[in-house]
Amino acid sequence: MKPYKSIINVFLLTSLTACGSLEKKAILLNIGDTKEQALKVMGSPDDRQLKGDNEAWQYCQTGAGFGYHDYRTVWFFQGRITGINSYKSTRPASSCVTDIKPIRWEDAPDTTIEIRNR
Hints:
Layout: H1 2-18, H2 21-26, H3 35-42, E1 47-51, E2 54-61, E3 69-77, E4 80-89
Antiparallel strand pairs: 1-2, 2-3, 3-4
C-alpha cells in the first residue's frame, strides 16, 4: 500500500508545483528590467514579435490549471520591460502554442520609462 501512496504524493506534488509557475515568474519582473533579466527569469519565449523599437515576448504554460492554458506577454521598448499582460485559453483539444494570440501593437503599454536610483 505504501508504494502507491508515494506515487500519488509525487504526482500531486508535481501537479501543484506546475500550477501558476508563469505567474510566479512574472511577479519577479519589473518595469524597466532588461531583456537579459527577463530571459534569466522567464526563459526563452514561445513567441517573439518585433515592430520598430517595440518587442513582445509571449510565454505559455500547458495545463496551467484545470483545462486551460496560461499566457504572459512581456512588452519591451528599446530593450526595457514596459508591461506584462496575461490571458487564458480554454479551447478544447488545443495546444499551448496554437492559441498564442497575434500581437496587437495598439495594446502595447506606454513606452515612457523612468528609472530612479534609490
